[in-house]
Predict the 3D structure of the following.
Amino acid sequence: MDEKGISKAVIKRLPRYYRYLGELLEAGVERISSNELSEKMQVTASQIRQDLNNFGGFGQQGYGYNVQYLYNEIGKILGLDTVHNMIIVGAGNLGQALANYVNFEKRGFRLVGIFDANPVLQGVSVRGIPIQMIDTIPEFLQNNDVEIATLTIPKESVVDMADMLVKNGIRALWNYAHTDLNLVVPDGVIVENVHLSESLMRLSYNLTSYERNQKNQ
Amino acid sequence: MDEKGISKAVIKRLPRYYRYLGELLEAGVERISSNELSEKMQVTASQIRQDLNNFGGFGQQGYGYNVQYLYNEIGKILGLDTVHNMIIVGAGNLGQALANYVNFEKRGFRLVGIFDANPVLQGVSVRGIPIQMIDTIPEFLQNNDVEIATLTIPKESVVDMADMLVKNGIRALWNYAHTDLNLVVPDGVIVENVHLSESLMRLSYNLTSYERNQKNQ
DNA sequence: TAGATTGTTAATCGATTAACAATC
DNA sequence: TAGATTGTTAATCGATTAACAATC
């Protein structure tokens, strides 16, 4: 199974397929054709078939796709069938919000530690996990097999933190700080940047240019 | 100034330019060439020039771009030079995290109301704004000029909520629920979906396929 | 078998990169 | 003026869509 060279555009769409298939599953739908799914998701049937065929033939001519089977297969492709231990660094509002997000657990992301620099938070429990001090991270990573670190700390400290985490064996960073960590981290370390403010600016652009168009008509 | 037909790919990159220019500004850099910027941002200089020229010529041959000027212009394009009133619907962890995010204010997004369905939260203040009950939203929108609603409520209730908000004049939805609101909302209403779990799944995909490749070598 | 729908190749469309003349 | 660098056109690359033969 060589999954090398799958385009970013395809990978970006996979979680969305997964979500829609999950909903169909909940609704008790057993099978679906690329055409039906394309209407629901507002993409072309052609694109769905092309996307899926990057990973193998999951359907059957004359029948379509079995929802449960396809859901499972995409889950496997996304790596949701294995458990990944995760820590959260930064127990502010956002860090705690993410910690409380129950569904991650269901997808194989197991929260095993929460860390913060603020001594006031020491020992405070979030979802049954006591917040620990940041300087204990190296020791923690030595004793626990953690792959993912979620970074909800200010951008000023995030580069140094990323360095330290990678040196202690962290394999992937889920970065909420306003920096593109991928540009400062060694090759092979996975970085997923979440820039919420950029999302809001995009909204602002669309809102503003819509209003401009209204005026000019 | 006709900004019709700017491609999504370009719009997606604008906030990133804005961020890098802001950093250069803070660092006291006065001018920059597309080439220098391209190295910093890890994109091609050609792309930078193409992107900017969608909106007009902001540079000068032989000189490059004035950082302050370009920063301001991109800000204008993104609509960050006007104030947009915003409410947050859903005062759970994520809603409160976003409410506490100070920088939005600086970019022209003014938080004017926070709402929740849980009576326990009634009157609790977040950043000086008391949480109000959701059933008071229509009246609130009648009395206040609000353009943007941030939705941090469960997906079960988000479609009805969106309907209600739009009926009461909301122009844009910043949606954190696990649904594609753009597919259920009338034309002309701006929707920006933020699917954090999809981001984590992408991370998971990259991590998993990296590990698979390691094994096969 | 006939009908439906996939898997896949070919055609089209759009986005990115390269190149260079214009010009500061 | 000479050098630098933009704005912009042309070339390339990649992604999406259309079409259809294969096949359940």
Observations:
- Chain B touches chain A through 62 residues (CB under 8 Å).
- Chain B has a mean pLDDT of 95.
- The domain at 84-197 of chain B is CATH 3.40.50.720 (Rossmann fold).
- The longest strand of chain B covers residues 109-116.
